[in-house]
Design goal:
Blueprint (H helix, E strand, L loop, with lengths): L3 E3 L10 E3 L11 E2 L10 H9 L9 H28 L11 E5 L2 E4 H4 E6 L3 E6 L5 H10 L6 E4 L2 E8 L5 H20 L7 H13 L1 E2 L2 H33 L1
Antiparallel strand pairs: 1-2, 3-10, 4-5, 6-7, 7-9, 8-9
Helix pairs in contact: 2-5, 2-6, 2-7, 5-7, 6-7
GO molecular function, one term: ribosomal large subunit binding
Organism: Pichia inconspicua
Keywords: Protein biosynthesis
């Protein structure tokens, strides 16, 4: 087995295991800033450590950008899911999933435990009730949710509820687009939202600021972080524009 050089003292995104023989005297070595000493290892010290098979700290730009992209992808997936829900409006099979259904004095079920919703055409929702004894309770829960939806029991099937959706209007579409735009702004620039693009970028920039290393490499990583940020801003905006067009 080849000896390895283990990266220490770095944010998780920059920790890697690299075979010692892969290094040369030009390898970029860096470490967390020491607030008291403010020093970093020289290339000479790094080469000596490599020759002695000692543990050194090595900058891994690709690992940093890969983890950045992973966090942005996770943010985009969350954004896309919420965007789809807003775009669908009430024609959404998950619209009732957060409702609580009181079965009896000792048991309250979540909606998915007792029923399932499906979109029927463009103007109807069908709710299939698993136990016919729960039908009235589910109807009551939907009415009490103030969704302006009126479930009707199919006269031929007591376990099927049919719900006519309101016709889409210009005013309704404008409200949907406004809500989608607010969602976009949240995920783009709300620093208080942990998964927003700006919050993720800020976290990575802070890690770089607290790390010493080659100025050229640090600058390149900073530029890559900025370029990646802009790429994902465009990706979020494109998803919003496509959702907006689908409503017009």
């Amino acid at each position: 087995m080849l000896p390895v050089t283990r990266v220490l003292g770095l944010p998780s995104f920059a920790r890697v295991f690299i075979p010692t023989r892969a290094f040369s005297s030009s390898a970029v070595v860096w470490a967390k800033k020491d607030k008291k000493a403010g020093k970093k290892e020289s290339k000479k010290d790094a080469k000596k450590a490599l020759d002695d098979n000692e543990e050194v700290v090595v900058l891994d730009p690709r690992a940093i950008i890969n983890e950045l992209k992973s966090k942005y992808d996770n943010s985009f997936n969350q954004f896309s899911k919420k965007l789809t829900e807003l775009k669908m409006g009430k024609a959404n099979p998950t619209i009732f999933d957060k409702l609580k259904i009181k079965i009896d004095d000792s048991y309250t079920a979540t909606f998915p435990e007792v029923a399932m919703t499906a979109v029927k055409g463009s103007n109807f929702l069908n709710v299939t009730v698993f136990d016919p004894s729960h039908t009235k309770k589910i109807v009551s829960a939907i009415l009490e949710a103030n969704l302006n939806l009126n479930p009707e029991v199919d006269p031929k099937n007591p376990q099927l509820l049919k719900i006519k959706l309101p016709n889409s209007t210009k005013e309704l579409k404008e409200k949907q687009i406004k809500a989608m735009k607010e969602l976009l702004d949240q995920y783009k620039s709300n620093a208080a939202l942990k998964n927003s693009l700006v919050a993720i970028r800020s976290h990575f920039m802070k890690e770089l600021k607290n790390t010493e290393g080659s100025k050229d490499v640090i600058k390149k990583i900073t530029d890559d972080i900025d370029a990646t940020y802009k790429t994902y801003v465009d990706k979020f905006q494109t998803a919003f524009r496509n959702a907006e067009k689908s409503l017009n």
